[in-house]
Structures are given as structure tokens and as C-alpha cells.
Amino acid sequence: MRALGLDPVHDTRDAFDGLLDAMSRPGTVQSVPSPADHAVVSTLVDHEVTLSTTDETLRDALAGQGRLDAAPPEAADVVHLTGDRDVDVRECERGTLVEPSDGATAVYVVDSLAAGATGAGTTVRITGPGVDGTATLSVSLPKAELAALADAQSSYPRGVDAVFASDDRLAALPRSVTTEVV
């Protein structure tokens, strides 16, 4: 992943560790190699995992390694959502009751991200597995986008896992949690 400015061994390992921590403890913010969205996508995508992205740099780097299996957003395993936000996350794959793990992972590129209600973005209240009581996360996404994500996660165990990436930080909302836009 040197084409993305990432070390293919150390940076993807660090991104995996950060992603694992974020998924295990929803609402926390983890440090990962920068840019976080590229680190996460390059960690998750291989020749068996489909990707939807409009990021040409990312597409070219993965294609150059034979790791790009492009798919439309509604069929992709990983959906990389940049600033254009022309994808309705409710249309992404949610898996089935037999295979809920077939649900997509949406990787959102955001300008700001913080644990707690900081006022720097839309606040989401989180409850469920991995959360001690209630947690809050501030994300620079419109309320409507976060409400659509909550809807996409409303049929547990089916749903869409979400990762928010900003610079060298990430947070995650797995499909197992309940979210409420504050």
C-alpha cells in the first residue's frame, strides 16, 4: 500500500488493531495511520472482498495490487463514502438472519470526530454490547445521514457496520449497537 503512503505490514496491522478496538468499544476514538480511511479500506479489502468507492487514488492502488473487486454500493462488502454522500446507506447489503456477517461495512470520511458530545458535529447516543451504559460520539455528518445509518442498523443481527475516519482517527458503530441521533 505504499502507493497510499502506508506501510503494507505495520500500518495495516495498526489499522486492524485500531479497528478492532473501535468495534469492540463503540463510541471510542482510536488512533490509526493517516489517512485513516485509506488505512481501514486497505486493511479490509482483498481479492475476495468487494469495494465501492469514488476515490480514484484508492481504486488505483488496490487495482495495482490485484486487490480491487469493484461493486456497486448496494452489493459491495465495503462501501467507502467520501464527501459526495450520494449513496443511501439503507440500500447497502444488510446480510440475512442466517448470515448477518454478509452485511456491508460503510467507511465514512468525516472532517471531525470526537468521543462525547463536543458540539463539533452531530451527536449520537450509543447503547449496546461494548458500551458501559451509554456513550456519545460527535461526528461531522448531517443528522439525516446518521438517522439513515440508525435505520440501516435497526434489524439486528442484520445491518450495516459503520466506521468513521478522520485524519488519523477512527470510531465505529457495529450493527449490534443501538444509536439515537441527539
From TrEMBL:
SUPFAM superfamilies: PhnH-like. Keywords: Lyase, Plasmid. InterPro entries: PhnH-like_sp (IPR038058), Phosphonate_metab_PhnH (IPR008772). The keyword 4Fe-4S does not apply. Gene3D superfamilies: Bacterial phosphonate metabolism protein PhnH (3.40.50.11310). It comes from the Archaea. It holds the Pfam family PhnH. One of its GO terms (molecular function) is lyase activity. GO terms for biological process: organic phosphonate metabolic process. NCBIfam families: PhnH_redo. This is Phosphonate C-P lyase system protein PhnH. It comes from Haloarcula marismortui ATCC 33800.
